[in-house]
Design goal:
Layout (H helix, E strand, L loop, with lengths): L8 E5 L4 E3 L5 E3 L3 E4 L6 H4 L2 E3 L2 E2 L4 E2 L7 E7 L2 E6 L13 H14 L2
Antiparallel strand pairs: 1-4, 1-5, 2-3, 6-7, 8-9
């Protein structure tokens, strides 16, 4: 099974000042940023305008596929993260091999 590519949305900085994003770049007014909605905090979303908007419906165009990633927490422990929401799917951190098995089981359940 192939994982579905989750589309990043285009955001344009509309307010003054600059923003140092997690990608290491500084964004100024008029700059374009590619990011998932969960990558911008609610405070920063007011500084950006989403350019990937269906004007007739006034909503963001979203890919509703789920993409899971394993994030290292430190000390050999990992979380399985839903990249759309940014939230971990597991209740507590787990070892890497258990996290991989968790993803395989999750994907089998969603076929």
């Amino acid at each position: 099974m192939q994982r579905k590519e989750v589309k990043r949305l285009k955001w344009q900085k509309v307010s003054g000042g600059n923003h140092l994003h997690s990608d290491g770049k500084r964004y100024k007014k008029g700059d374009i940023l590619l990011a998932h909605p969960h990558e911008l905090s609610d405070a920063l979303k007011s500084d950006y305008k989403c350019l990937d908007i269906d004007e007739s419906k006034g909503e963001e165009i979203k890919d509703h596929g789920i993409l899971l990633e394993i994030h290292h927490k430190g000390g050999g422990w990992y979380d399985v993260i839903n990249t759309i929401t940014g939230e971990p799917l597991n209740d507590s951190s787990m070892k890497r091999d258990v996290a991989k098995a968790f993803i395989v089981d999750f994907e089998k359940g969603n076929e």
